[in-house]
Design brief:
The structure holds 2 protein chains of 2 kinds. By secondary structure, chain A is mainly α. Chain A contains 11 helices and 2 strands, in the order ααββααααααααα. Chain B has one domain: Transmembrane di-heme cytochromes, Chain C (Fumarate Reductase Cytochrome B subunit, Up-down Bundle). In chain B, helix 1 packs across helix 2 and helix 5 runs antiparallel to helix 7. The longest helix of chain B has about 30 residues. The chains are: A mainly alpha, B mainly alpha. The structure holds protoporphyrin IX containing FE.
């Protein structure tokens, strides 16, 4: 059993590290002694609820899921810095602040355009857990159930932004990403994890429209104005209400389906009739 | 009788290899959601490796096209270009007469010249397909350059064209071409024209009766070919093929028709 003194000591170590270095990467962070976790879990490892604003709040952390999570060896006090038994809002705000300790720059923007901090999804407002799920059960990136896993790359956004994520998966970006490309962007690479620079729905990327594409398509400055004026991203042959963007894709798609149908019917007829004719003939003279 | 000269055989070989590799490395991108797509990507190490091989094979295809075009230009300059691959009105009639014969409405098979209607069809399908794949492929490889001249909606539509022309080419090979040169019992297990350039007398007699008669008139062939391939009378082969092609055709219909008719 670890004493309360050790627990306080661990907290002091973390706070000192924060004070000295500002931001701490996981490698630098001194994980508090695991006993700290054990102590907290004595109460929080079992069903435990509190009431806040008239609603029950679940305060339980499943010890097994926590231990298996990406944060499983960090220990409680890395995020829940003392004093911990404060009002729920205070505790939550303090814990969210702590994400910054490791996930210092939660944005993929080029240097100078990003602002350290957290994406606050504007409407509805979502914190980290809104997209990443229960922070106490967050899975490592290479786990197929992680929202960050390549196989699940629209996991954050898909449930609400179905049309966009379907179109993304149809796109070259999405296909390449799904097949493990490290260069192809996912949702966050263009939209960032920051509040969009502009909340105008026409410009929903985190950087100014052009910087978004030019971050990768460096030679594309001359093409950009033309491309932006003549169509948009996230369109498939099935997208309706996208004007020429959807219509042209749909027309080409249907045209090819018709040609494929024609060609297979033509070849199929020749094959089937040729073979049946030969079959009759083979039978006749045997 | 020689049907493919040396250059034609090399061009055919390059086309076959590049097309096979292009299909192998392109389809996983189109069907990225399928589990087999990841398995194919693993063969190439990474997605970037897969795409690099796709582009290398595209370069081989482009080289083949240039090779072919320069051979054609040379023959044209020497006034020795053979125009018999150009479709004529007669070929449309041949198509109808051939189907009529296969169905049993006509007693005799139509007599074809140097190229049958389906050979001409396949040839021009390859010309068209290479042009479409080359043009759309270049737009996909150089979006920054293409985007200066081509509107965004057209870039999107060209990607759809690239994706679907690939399926069309694949199916044309699987059905039309493999049957005509491998599985049709009179050529089974495969014509050797692409290897040594020559067709057998009985194949020539069945597919190119008019050419065969030229040989007869020169006393280079008997009035009727002496021997027929034993496969034309093999009922197990024919029945197996009917079942296999029937299933494949049904599978394509099941995959295509709902999309064709759907919203
Ligand atoms: C007969 C020849 C070819 C076949 C069968 C073929 C097949 C394919 C297929 C099936 C895809 C996936 C399309 C999709 O995402 O839905 C693809 C993608 C691609 N191909 Fe080809 N291709 C051929 C020739 C070419 C050529 C000549 C080039 C270059 C000049 C090219 C460049 C590309 C590029 C850059 C992509 C990735 C872009 C994308 O998928 O949006 N391909 N190809």
């Amino acid at each position: 059993m670890v004493s309360g003194r050790t627990r306080r000591l661990a907290a002091v170590v973390v706070l000192a590290a924060l004070a000295a270095g500002g931001r701490v990467t996981p490698a630098q962070a001194e994980p508090p002694a695991t006993g700290v976790t054990g102590d907290c879990l004595e109460c929080h490892g079992e069903p435990l609820t509190a009431e806040a604003g008239g609603r029950p709040v679940d305060l339980m952390v499943d010890p097994d899921r926590y231990a298996a999570s990406a944060h499983g060896d960090l220990g409680c006090s890395l995020c829940h810095r003392p004093p911990v038994h404060v009002s729920l809002e205070q505790a939550r705000a303090a814990a969210l602040d702590a994400c910054d300790t490791c996930h210092e720059n939660h944005d993929f923007g080029p240097a100078g355009t990003s602002r350290p901090g957290f994406f606050v999804h504007p409407d509805p407002p979502l914190g980290c857990a809104g997209c990443h799920g229960d922070i106490h059960a967050v899975r490592p990136r290479d786990d197929s159930s992680s929202v960050l896993n390549g196989a699940n790359i629209t996991g954050f956004c898909g449930p609400c932004h179905r049309e966009q994520t379907d179109a993304y998966l149809y796109s070259y970006h999405g296909s390449a990403r799904r097949l493990g490309s490290r260069h192809a962007p996912d949702c966050g690479d263009c939209h960032g994890h920051l509040p969009p620079v502009s909340l105008d729905p026409q410009v929903p990327t985190s950087r100014e429209g052009e910087a978004t594409c030019l971050a990768c398509h460096r030679g594309g400055a001359a093409a950009l104005a033309n491309l932006q004026e003549t169509g948009r991203e996230h369109v498939t042959p099935l997208t309706t209400g996208a004007g020429l963007d959807g219509l042209a894709r749909r027309a080409v798609w249907k045209l090819f389906l018709a040609v494929i149908f024609f060609n297979v019917t033509k070849d199929g007829a020749v094959i089937v009739f040729d073979l049946t004719r030969r079959l009759r003939r083979a039978g006749r003279r045997e | 009788m020689t049907r493919f000269d040396f250059h034609a055989r090399v061009q055919h070989g390059l086309l076959a290899v590049s097309l096979a590799v292009l299909i192998l490395t392109g389809f996983p991108v189109k069907f990225a959601a399928q589990p087999w797509a990841r398995a194919v990507v693993r063969l190439f190490g990474s997605f970037e490796g897969l795409l690099a091989v796709h582009l290398a094979a595209a370069a081989v295809l482009a080289f083949t096209a240039l090779y072919y075009l320069s051979a054609v230009s040379l023959a044209l300059a020497r006034r020795r270009l053979d125009f018999s691959i150009v479709p004529r009105l007669r070929d449309f009639g041949d198509f109808g007469r051939h189907l009529g014969y296969l169905i049993g409405l006509r007693p005799d098979a139509p007599r074809f010249g140097k190229f049958t209607w389906w050979e001409k069809f396949e040839f021009w399908a390859v010309v068209w397909g290479t042009a479409v794949m080359g043009a759309s492929g270049l737009v996909l490889v150089f979006p920054e350059l293409a985007g200066r001249f081509v509107p965004r909606w057209a870039v999107g539509a060209l990607r759809v064209a690239h994706s679907n022309e690939a399926v069309l080419a694949f199916l044309a090979v699987v059905f039309g071409h493999t049957f005509a040169v491998h599985f049709s019992p009179h050529v089974f297990p495969g014509s050797t024209v692409w290897l040594n350039g020559r067709a057998t007398l009985s194949q020539l007699h069945e597919d190119h009766a008019m050419m065969y008669e030229v040989l007869v008139s020169r006393n280079a062939a008997p009035p009727r070919p002496m021997k027929e391939s034993r496969w034309v009378r093999s009922r197990p082969l024919i029945v197996t093929e009917l079942a296999a092609y029937g299933l494949l055709i049904a599978a394509v219909y099941v995959a295509v028709v709902p999309h064709l008719l759907g919203a």
